[in-house]
Specification:
Elements (H helix, E strand, L loop, with lengths): L1 E2 L5 H10 L5 H12 L13 H10 E2 L4 E7 L6 E6 L5 E9 L2 E5 L3 E3 L14 E4 L2 H15 L5 E4 L9 H12 L11 E5 L3 H10 L4 E5 L5 H7 L8 H15 L3 E7 L7 H11 L4 E7 L13 H13 L4 E3 L13 H7 L3
Parallel strand pairs: 1-2, 6-9, 9-10, 10-11, 11-12, 12-13, 13-14
Antiparallel strand pairs: 3-4, 4-5, 5-6, 7-8
Helix pairs in contact: 1-2, 4-5, 6-8, 9-10
The structure holds S-adenosyl-L-homocysteine.
Length: 343
């Protein structure tokens, strides 16, 4: 069956016309789904029963329900585990900041990229998420908190550019003025660096931020942490980043997770500065979040600060990501794994 919540307003209008309905019904239905995050047709009080019945017969209406919610006692960050209609589960995170709240969305169930430090990829890729299933993560959090979400980052489990078409549709619906209408500038998509897709995305000329998970400043070292580096060299990646800026005017965010003794030396900082110094960018340093299946250890506080200062001395724009939700399995994929183990 067609997935109703993944249709654009134009497509929904065409569907209504096919059913012999007036086209304003499409706008009503769309408003209930995307503007008001309705969980069922019963909520749509101005929709005729007969139309609701027809829709039930013809379309899937995807709704996510939280099966587990953990709230951090330290900073109020909430981690949600949602049940998908097929029995799979996905994680999303709500982070609250002074300037608004941000939802971190998963783009796939599992992941096939194989980054060594990441818990989401340990069992490989289960399946792609539908646009509606990505949207519903934001909607379900909105329903649960009753607060408006101002920012969305696609930094949960999965590689968004490995689910490219669904990602684009998700972005279109998320930022649409008849839906939640989140500003493109408040949306970030994080990738491990699938070069052709980065270029394709650049050509769409969206105003979203592209974040690149770099984690190493030489090809050798990056290959040890991220298998995707076997496919695309740093050279190609940097060219794709420059192209993204050229096409969109949006500066790139580089994510760099600091692992003790692996990528956090003075030499690493110097190599990184040389690699990206010519780009219009921002660097986000993340002390690696240790996962139980691997023995990577977080860089010490002083090493993180020293690394940051070395980059700053070279004129780079750098922040250290505040660790949020440390006490609630904050690292990608940890909550789902725990749930699957029956803990
Ligand atoms: N697949 C995308 C988005 C998901 S991960 C990507 O690779 O960018 C979001 C970020 O968290 C990425 O930078 C990823 O490398 C990083 N990450 C994953 N596991 C981590 C961990 N245990 N500690 C620190 N960062 C981690």
């Amino acid at each position: 069956m067609t997935d109703l919540k993944s249709l654009t307003l134009d497509e929904l209008t065409a569907e209504m016309q096919k059913m012999g309905e007036k086209s304003f019904r499409a706008k009503q239905l769309y408003g209930w789904m995307h503007g008001r995050q309705a969980v069922c047709y019963e909520e749509m009080t101005n929709l005729p029963r007969t139309l609701a019945d027809k829709c039930r017969e013809r379309y899937d209406y995807i709704v996510l329900k939280p099966v587990r919610v953990q709230e951090s006692a330290i900073d109020g960050t909430r981690k949600y585990l949602f049940a998908l209609p097929d029995g799979n589960t996905v994680e999303s995170v709500l982070m609250r900041y002074k300037h608004g709240s941000c939802v971190c969305v998963s783009s796939q169930v599992g992941c096939r990229m194989g980054c060594r430090f990441c818990a989401s990829t340990l069992d490989g890729l289960e399946r792609n998420l539908l646009p509606s299933e990505m949207l519903e993560q934001v909607y379900a959090v909105t329903r649960h908190t009753g607060e408006r979400v101002s920012n969305v980052v696609v930094m949960g489990s999965g590689e968004p550019l490995d689910n490219y078409d669904n990602l684009l549709r998700f972005l279109e619906l998320l930022t649409d003025e008849n839906g939640l209408h989140i500003s493109q500038r408040n949306v970030t998509v994080s990738t491990c660096g699938i070069v052709p897709r980065m270029r394709q995305l650049a050509d769409r000329q969206l105003q979203i931020t592209l974040a690149l998970s770099l984690h190493a400043a030489t090809d050798d070292r990056r290959r040890k942490l991220m298998p995707v580096a076997e496919r695309y060299s740093l050279n190609e990646l940097m060219e794709a980043c420059a192209y993204y800026f050229e096409r969109t005017g949006r500066r790139i965010t580089f994510e760099y997770s600091l692992v003790r003794g692996v990528n956090d030396s003075a030499e690493d900082a110097a190599l990184l500065a040389s690699l990206i110094g010519h780009l219009n960018c921002h660097v986000n340093l993340i002390p690696v979040n240790p996962i139980r299946e691997r023995d990577y250890v977080q860089s010490e506080r002083y090493a993180v600060n020293a690394f940051r200062d070395r980059l700053r001395d070279r004129g780079l724009n750098v922040t250290v990501r505040r660790e949020m939700g440390r006490d609630i399995d904050g690292a990608c994929g940890q909550l789902r794994r725990r749930y699957m183990r029956g803990e």
